[in-house]
From TrEMBL:
Record field: transmembrane: 12-30, 42-61, 81-105, 117-135, 147-172, 184-204, 216-235
The species this protein was found in: Anaeromassilibacillus senegalensis
Keyword Metal-binding (UniProt): no
Protein known as: histidine kinase
A Pfam family: HATPase_c
This protein's record includes keyword Transmembrane: yes
Length: 467
């Protein structure tokens, strides 16, 4: 028989605990199997579930198996399985969670070189633990080697701290984006059970608080709450790629959802516009002069519909960069010169160092600047001044577009870059211009922000990271 007995929850509850963890993280995985965030959240969740599962196996299932079928299970084998599953929890759960944090913070987009090394490097300590403290002997070290336990605790706390910094830093950086609320809920889903585990499984044991050794089982109601939390948000509006009834979408990148809707809209309009155009052309050719005038109006409207749907599709497409080193001053001057021709009542001043260079996509950056100049001109109703300034910022570079227009109300600032959001009332705006600008900057690993000027008007700041 196994030495010792399990205190705390009965074996049936430990099995229920394990199943609840699996249910939660299978829901996350099935929300969008193709999303790397979902995948790594699932992997780390499965690693953490081994902490409960090994307790159920070692203290409940294995003793029953040894009693019923003595030849199937031995004390030595049961200890080996317990030790290996403990190693999975102690060594691999936090690195998997940290890789999730890398994707959460968009490190793969913002710092691709660092990401390629970091996602491998975080697992190196887990392998070294296996060399110095063999996985098959983890149970022994856990019980009798305090130095080992301190090392394991510091290792897990360090990774937990790094994960927390990644998640909270990302929330702060993206606090005004369309996916902020979604990411905030995901951070809750991840950090609450992890930190409860890190405190209850390590700190209590290091302090030798024997009466609280099973406090880690308090994660059961937390997991139950998180399942309800997940389902509630999945039903309410969608969570981590699942929206009931089930629809997969990129929860951390709304571009694909917007692109799909734009394609659907264009396809739907195309067939109807063709029929309307055909009827209008027939009216022009065969009807009296007054009816032909109405036909002209219809044809102009159909032309406009095709332009708008084409523009929506263009702005919602996945952005592929063709980056090169560019002289910034000529690019800014060219955009300003083009805008002066379109709006002669607006003064455009360019400030930029002659030797300033930027590694970027010229076509997309030009389109971003054109969007910002057009928006600034409309905010000033065709009269006023715009300043376009490029300058180094730390290791990176920033471009500011400032106007002397009406400004932007505070309640609109947080929604400016959301798809289909616009404060304009004319039919020429579809609410994808600033959304497109945000996506271009994200692809460059940078950001775009809007702020009110101290006196009058608005400034849009494009920030590019240093290479």
């Amino acid at each position: 028989m196994l030495i010792g007995t399990s205190k705390g929850l009965p074996g049936e509850f430990l099995l229920l605990f394990t199943l609840l963890i699996w249910v939660l993280f299978f829901l996350v995985y099935l929300g969008n199997r193709h999303n790397r965030l979902n995948r790594w959240c699932f992997i780390s969740g499965m690693c953490f579930s081994m902490g409960v599962f090994k307790e159920y196996l070692y203290f409940t299932l294995f003793p029953a198996v040894m009693q019923a079928w003595p030849g199937w299970m031995t004390e030595e084998l049961s200890l080996d399985i317990y030790s290996v599953l403990t190693a999975v929890l102690y060594y691999f759960a936090m690195p998997a969670a940290l890789v999730f944090g890398f994707y959460f913070s968009r490190m793969d987009e913002r710092r691709p070189k660092l990401f390629r090394w970091a996602r491998i490097g975080v697992f190196v300590p887990a392998l070294l633990f296996g060399v110095f403290y063999p996985y098959l002997e983890t149970r022994y070290y856990q019980l009798y080697d305090r130095t080992y336990y301190l090392c394991a605790a510091l290792y897990n706390w360090l990774y937990g701290g790094l994960l927390t910094v990644l998640l909270l830093g990302t929330l702060w950086r993206e606090r005004r984006t369309a996916v902020y609320r979604q990411k905030k809920m995901v951070a809750i889903l991840v950090l609450v059970p992890i930190w409860y585990q890190l405190i209850s499984a390590f700190l209590i044991h290091l302090l030798d608080l024997k009466g609280l050794f099973k406090a880690w089982q308090g994660n059961l109601p937390i997991i139950l709450f998180l399942i309800i939390f997940y389902l509630y948000n999945a039903f309410k509006g969608g969570f981590m790629g699942a929206r009931f009834q089930h629809e997969s979408y990129e929860w951390n990148q709304d571009g694909k959802l917007v692109n799909q809707s734009a394609q659907f809209l264009r396809h739907m309009l195309k067939n109807e516009v063709v029929k309307i155009e055909w009827c209008a052309q027939n009216i022009q050719q065969s009807a009296p002069e007054e009816a032909a005038d109405y036909a002209d109006i219809i044809l102009r409207s159909t032309t406009r519909l095709k332009e708008l749907s084409g523009k929506a599709l263009h702005y919602s497409k996945d952005i592929v960069l063709n980056r090169q080193v560019l002289q910034i001053a000529p690019l800014l001057e060219a955009c300003a010169a083009d805008y002066r021709k379109l709006s002669p009542g607006v003064q455009v001043e360019v400030r930029c160092g002659e030797g300033d260079e930027l590694f970027c996509d010229q076509a997309h950056l030009t389109e971003v600047l054109n969007n910002l100049l057009n928006n600034a001109g409309e905010a000033m109703h065709g009269q006023g001044s715009i300043t376009v300034e490029g300058k180094p910022a730390g290791r990176g570079y920033q471009i500011c577009v400032s106007d002397t227009g009406d400004g932007i109300a505070k309640e609109h600032l947080g929604q400016l870059f959301s798809p289909y959001y616009t404060t304009k009332t004319s039919g020429h705006h579809i609410g994808l211009g600033l959304y497109y600008c945000r996506n271009v900057m994200r692809k460059h690993g940078g950001s775009i922000q809007a702020r009110q000027n101290e006196t009058r008007g608005t400034t849009f700041v494009l920030r590019f990271p240093g290479e």
